[in-house]
Amino acid sequence: MKASEIIGGPKAGEIMGHLCDIEEGSAKEFTYRAGPDLRAIFIYRKGEEVFSYENSCPHAYLPLNMKAGLFTEKSGKYFMCHNHGALFDIKTGKCLAGPCNGQSLTKIDIELKNGTIFAR
Length: 120
Ligand code: FES
Known about the structure:
mainly beta, Rieske Iron-sulfur Protein, three-stranded antiparallel β-sheet, 38% strand, binds FE2/S2 (inorganic) cluster
């Protein structure tokens, strides 16, 4: 889903941040509200790349993290839902192990250009 399709979210082309704002192996979180609809997303940095997903685990629709910015297990190789331990591929969002095995996080379409992150 494009970031600009989130109700109450950023417009296409809007700046969402800069690569240098996000610590390596950490994520920046955003919440958008439009009436009763609350959507949370995160943008995770891995090296010079960023990956964005809706912060909602397909198992029980809870946020993946319990601490700000902490979305992976100890090794940093996989996203981990800290509720019941589901593991997700960072690049695709696909659940590789846990109660929602085979399902996927909702990917949010963003663009990184010259160190600046834009909504699509
Ligand atoms: S809510 Fe994520 S594993 Fe259960």
